Amino acid sequence: MSEYLSKVYNPFPVEVQEALGVYIFTKSGERYFDTFSGIGVLAFGHSDPDIKNAIIEKVKRHAHISNFFIDENAPKVAQKLVEKTKRNKGKVFFANSGAEANEAAIKAVKKLKKGLLVSFVKNFHGRTIGALSITGFPRLREPFVPLLGDVVFLPHNDVNTFKNFMENEQREIAAVFVECIHGSGGLNVIDAELVELINEYKNKKNYLIVADEVQAGLGRTGEFFAFQNFSLKPDIVTVAKSLGGGLPLGAAIFLDEVSDVFSPGDHGSTFAPNPVALAAASVVLDKIDESLLKEVKEKGNYIKKKLQELNKKIVEIRGLGLMIGVKVNVDGQKLRQKAFENGLLLNVLSENVVRFLPPLNISYSEIEEMLELFNKSLMEVE
Ligand SMILES: Cc1ncc(COP(=O)(O)O)c(C=O)c1O
User: Fold this and answer.
1) Given the CA of residue 102, which atom of ligand 1 is nearest to it?
2) pLDDT value at position 1?
3) Nearest CA, atom 8, ligand 1
4) Is the pTM of this model over 0.90?
5) Cα 64 to Cα 271: distance, rounded to the nearest angstrom
């Protein structure tokens, strides 16, 4: 690690030469199996040829032109995102990251409604001040208080607490922020009953629903948006991660009555949307078709079934589609180290949950290889 880099990460001790599909190749010639696709960014694996070509062709023309111009792909990508929500209308604000997409959502909420922002324990929305303010991890927020005021965190999947809160809270509620599957918070899937209540009280309390789809969106769960696995009716949807095919791109999608929330000057970005990232996004979105979504579901179910029989050190399996959390009863960091020695890169969250985010187009033979290396590492770890 360089003495000139902020010590905020815990990197693997390798130097990467190149990355292809599920593999990362180091300068010293080792090959590693990447189980988390650049933290859910590389939906089609490393260096997908279609995405790579789109990037190269665009960058040959220009890398940036500023938002004094509308890029040829911006309306197309925006239209596709809106259409995939299956709602009547919508408009997109492009950002550079998940946190930025959520900042745009928070600003939109604040412009339209006064009142509390309701979030859930273990929701993760990003590390900028606004996104952090609604992130349900006290240890991440505490060093930076005071953050945004008027934020309430309710326990996740606790239907009675939600109901009591909505019945008894006297203050106005501006918005409820939902992460249908907790990405960083342990891959817990939202309870269908809670979704019903969030929809129901929206009408009674007149708040907005924001669905953070930064990690679970864009096909990862086997539906285009994770909220489509449930009956959730969001007013704002945020995406990022895999949208730009490896380049930074996020979006806040404002739906139906919320579509026209922003007027000139309300919000903006020097960089977003980057035209090269948009060229990649156009390809990424074209690749997420019905047959891919079906495959994601089938492969997700296949992996979960195999994991159930794999090893006694696995105590719980969570998630949807190819967004899978595996809770183990061994030390997660020791497992990460053992897997690394076996050529398998694992992303271990707190409470010993391993997060699998393989490429959406992973093959069955790659799945077998991943599970074999995972099992070997589990057997060898104390
Ligand atoms: C659900 C969710 N929202 C927001 C973010 C923040 O995204 P970014 O790191 O691009 O700012 C993340 C990142 O992991 C995420 O998983």
Assistant:
1) 4
2) 67
3) 98
4) yes
5) 8
